[in-house]
């Protein structure tokens, strides 16, 4: 149960900041020797659902308004269109290369390299990215949505970070930091629901009532920790850069290569 709590905390704490939740879960799972590999994969899918639910709760008013006004409100239609456009690149690539990604890229070595490279890129983007002119998600163009979607596709590589790719990608393509972060939260919903739904369907034979309590502990822990992180990150990005996350990635990536790879 304690290991389930730790895994839930890792998921909730890292899902929405640019450090890669998948990479941290791979490292934590191997370090804790948590469950066997197949069961751990299913557990990680379940706790990701907890993190998604935290976004739904935090943005429940905007989501409800969007659903209610989708047929009449231009801003609601604009947001849904952009989310669909941004969703497509990662969805199509993930569906096409799902098995290859799971078989060949889910390793500590890949995570370590991706953490270091991603950290360096964050420092470069923070230094050279143009000032973002788009200050509201309702003003994001279809072209910018597609560009952010292509950036998100890079997160199919464990260790890259979906939130990092979308937030920093958004900053590169003309969004200010706060708008890129908010759009990243909304974009997490379709891509994570699709990915977890697909993985659960493939792993349905591994689901068991015997594991239900452990899975529930991880789910609830991931939900509450993710909720705290989402609210803290919104405040953080208003006044700070992501340089601290970049250096964290670089240090952790080096440690992973030193201690977790052979």
UniProtKB/TrEMBL annotation:
Keyword Cell wall biogenesis/degradation on entry: yes
Locations listed in the record: Cell membrane
Example GO molecular function: undecaprenyl-diphosphatase activity
The organism's place on the tree of life at top rank: Bacteria
Membrane spanning stretches: 42-59, 79-98, 104-125, 183-201, 213-234, 241-260
Alphabetized InterPro entries for the sequence: UppP (IPR003824)
Reactions that this protein is recorded to catalyse: di-trans,octa-cis-undecaprenyl diphosphate + H2O = di-trans,octa-cis-undecaprenyl phosphate + phosphate + H(+)
GO biological process, one term: regulation of cell shape
Enzyme Commission code: 3.6.1.27
Membrane topology note: Multi-pass membrane protein
Family stated for the protein in its record: Belongs to the UppP family.
Note: Bacitracin is thought to be involved in the inhibition of peptidoglycan synthesis by sequestering undecaprenyl diphosphate, thereby reducing the pool of lipid carrier available.
Role summary: Catalyzes the dephosphorylation of undecaprenyl diphosphate (UPP). Confers resistance to bacitracin.
Protein name according to UniProt: Undecaprenyl-diphosphatase
